[in-house]
């Protein structure tokens, strides 16, 4: 069975962390892109197809929460998993209220991460599926088909 | 006045005898000495509050005796007795540190008055000394508390900084592990060695992560919520959770809660963490066949829980240290040295105290005292509590 890779964007100002997490995710078959700031992340999303963004909450410049808000405003279907430091669980909950799929505490357990990645991707696919179905109904109606 | 320790020093035996008799009638039972030398020997044998000292004596005279007394026993007060024509000696005496002087022949009321004044002065001095000692102790405690607080802040900062490189190490090791799983590496030489080393790295990371998270947990404790907590339930829960470990070690857990222990307005998760921490410590400290007892004490407006073990006890010099961060008597890797530190800061944040008593060779007893209505102060200063 051929597994379709999840298109992941890893966003963290810690370059070496991004590098190693990307390599590891690629090794298990995901398609990974890297960004080192919130700004860069948003630029990437403009011209790259991404399923899930793994987003560090604490970054200099545009921080994780702000980036999350922008992502949800401009690319509402893209799912976001937040990476938080200890003690910022409140921020993480706030993020989930803004539309993030889930959060993980750094350093995160890789199995947890992959489970959440699959979940996030599934949620995105289901949403896309519903949109397609709705669009199809719309087309039928416009074409004057049976209701 | 009856408990006053008085020494009467005069070379004239008749004078001494009369004075002793009259003092006894007033409720004072003085010791006697017939010379300066004997006076000093007497003082060496048993301390005195007040010495009534004749100035004119053969051998070591009064002034010299006074000088010796003041040098060796500065807390002892001295009343000089001078001949009525030689009040100069009395003034000299005061200059050397005597409390006062009286000229012979003395009036008993006068002498009694002076003795009382001298005694009062001693009591005042003692009170002052006790106060100073208390202040010094308080200051020391403040310094210790401040040191711990700044140590906590520093530790949290360090923990935060460590988490980032730790994540890099973790992902690197994980990546290598993923590579080893690849088909094209199925026949790689010494693969087992690589796996072993990677496993060690991952275990090391996990150990470090535990420490950093515990450290951060002491400083920033969010998500605190007070609810009504049933103490009996909470203790049962905690005891059940560690029952297995106790069973392995053949340590009996005895629950001896007072039926009236009731409920408490507090944070159940934090409290459970404290109880589990204390119970785990107790089990570790207790040899096979020993006992760990959880008991409560009925108190008004307060909940008091004791956790007592029959372990080896804690040496006196360690009693203060066990609550400091990173103090552990377990071998490296087995204890983070943070359990009691964290437990105490949790209990204190809940408005209570965590204390310990221990008898070497017999066991230790940890006591958690919590106010019945614990108020939790949130980060934004908002207070939660029963709305009645």
Describe the structure.
The complex is a heterodimer of chains A (147) and B (388). Chain A has helices at 15-27, 38-47, 64-74, 89-97, 110-142; strands at 7-11, 31-35, 52-56, 79-84, 102-105. With 147 residues, chain A is of the alpha/beta class. A five-stranded parallel sheet of chain A has the order 2-1-3-4-5, sandwiched between helices. In chain B, helix 3 (62-72) links the parallel strand 3 and strand 4 (77-82). Chain B has helices at residues 13-25, 36-45, 62-72, 87-95, 108-180, 191-219, 231-248, 268-285, 339-349; strands at residues 6-9, 31-33, 50-54, 77-82, 100-103, 227-230, 252-256, 263-266, 291-299, 302-309, 353-359, 363-371, 376-377, 383-384. Chain B has nine helices and 14 strands. In chain B, the strands form four sheets. In chain B, strands 2-1-3-4-5 form a five-stranded parallel sheet, with helices on both faces. A five-stranded mixed sheet of chain B has the order 7-9-10-12-11. Chain B has a two-stranded antiparallel sheet with strand order 6-8. The radius of gyration of chain B is 34 Å and the shape is elongated. In chain B, helix 2 packs parallel to helix 3. The longest helix of chain B is centred in the middle third of the chain and has 73 residues, at 108-180. Chain B is an alpha/beta fold. Chain A binds chain B through residues 14, 16-17, 20-21, 23-24, 27-28, 85-87, 89-90, 105-108, 110, and chain B through 159-160, 163-164, 166-168, 170-172, 174-175, 178-179, 182, 205, 209, 212-213, 216-217, 219-220, 222-223.
Helix and strand topology:
The complex is a heterodimer of chains A (147) and B (388).
Chain A: E1 7-11, H1 15-27, E2 31-35, H2 38-47, E3 52-56, H3 64-74, E4 79-84, H4 89-97, E5 102-105, H5 110-142
Parallel strand pairs in A: 1-2, 1-3, 3-4, 4-5
Chain B: E1 6-9, H1 13-25, E2 31-33, H2 36-45, E3 50-54, H3 62-72, E4 77-82, H4 87-95, E5 100-103, H5 108-180, H6 191-219, E6 227-230, H7 231-248, E7 252-256, E8 263-266, H8 268-285, E9 291-299, E10 302-309, H9 339-349, E11 353-359, E12 363-371, E13 376-377, E14 383-384
Helix pairs in contact in B: 2-3, 5-6, 6-9, 7-8, 8-9
């Amino acid at each position: 069975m051929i597994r379709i890779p999840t298109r992941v964007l890893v966003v963290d100002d810690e370059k070496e962390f991004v590098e190693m997490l990307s390599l590891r995710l690629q090794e298990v078959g995901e398609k990974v892109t890297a960004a080192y700031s919130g700004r860069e992340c948003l630029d990437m999303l403009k011209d790259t197809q991404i399923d899930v963004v793994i987003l560090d909450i604490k970054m200099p410049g545009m921080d994780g929460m702000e980036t999350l808000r922008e992502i949800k405003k401009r690319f509402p279907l893209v799912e976001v998993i937040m990476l938080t430091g200890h003690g910022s669980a409140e921020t993480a909950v706030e993020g989930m209220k803004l539309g993030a799929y889930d959060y993980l505490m750094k350093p995160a357990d890789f199995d947890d991460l992959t489970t959440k990645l699959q979940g996030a991707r599934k949620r995105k696919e289901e949403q896309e599926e519903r949109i397609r179905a709705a669009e199809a109904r719309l087309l039928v109606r416009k074409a004057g088909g049976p209701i | 006045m009856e408990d006053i320790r008085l020494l009467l020093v005069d070379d004239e035996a008749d004078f001494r005898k009369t004075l002793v008799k009259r003092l006894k009638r007033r409720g004072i039972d003085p010791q006697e000495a017939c010379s300066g030398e004997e006076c000093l020997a007497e003082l060496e044998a048993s301390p005195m509050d007040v010495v009534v000292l004749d100035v004119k004596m053969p051998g070591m005279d009064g002034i010299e005796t006074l000088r010796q007394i003041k040098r060796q026993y500065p807390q002892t007060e001295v009343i000089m007795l001078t001949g009525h024509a030689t009040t100069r000696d009395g003034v000299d005496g005061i200059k050397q540190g005597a409390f006062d002087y009286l000229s012979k022949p003395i009036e008993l009321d006068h002498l009694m008055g002076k003795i009382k004044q001298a005694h009062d002065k001693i009591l005042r001095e003692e009170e002052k000394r006790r106060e100073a000692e208390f202040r010094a102790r308080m200051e020391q405690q403040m310094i210790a508390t401040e040191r711990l607080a700044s140590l906590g802040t520093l530790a949290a900062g360090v923990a935060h900084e460590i988490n980032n490189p730790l994540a890099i190490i973790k992902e690197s090791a994980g990546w290598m592990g993923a590579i080893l799983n690849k088909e094209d590496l199925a026949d790689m030489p010494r693969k087992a060695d690589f796996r072993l080393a990677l496993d060690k790295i991952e275990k090391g990371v996990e150990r470090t992560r535990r420490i950093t998270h515990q450290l951060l947990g002491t400083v920033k404790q969010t998500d605190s919520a007070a609810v009504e907590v049933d103490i009996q339930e909470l203790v049962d829960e905690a005891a059940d959770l560690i029952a297995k470990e106790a069973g392995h070690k053949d340590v009996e857990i005895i629950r001896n809660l007072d039926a009236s222990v009731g409920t408490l307005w507090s944070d159940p998760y934090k409290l459970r963490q404290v109880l589990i921490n204390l119970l785990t410590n107790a089990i570790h400290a207790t040899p096979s066949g020993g006992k760990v007892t959880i008991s409560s004490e009925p108190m008004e407006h307060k909940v008091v829980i004791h956790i007592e073990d029959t372990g080896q006890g804690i040496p006196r010099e360690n009693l203060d240290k066990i609550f400091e961060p990173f103090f552990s008597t377990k071998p490296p890797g087995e204890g983070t040295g943070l359990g009691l530190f964290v437990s105490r800061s949790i209990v204190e944040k809940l408005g209570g105290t965590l204390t310990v008593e221990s008898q070497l060779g017999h066991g230790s007893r940890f006591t958690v005292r919590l106010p019945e209505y614990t108020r939790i102060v949130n980060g934004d200063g908002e207070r939660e509590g029963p709305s009645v």
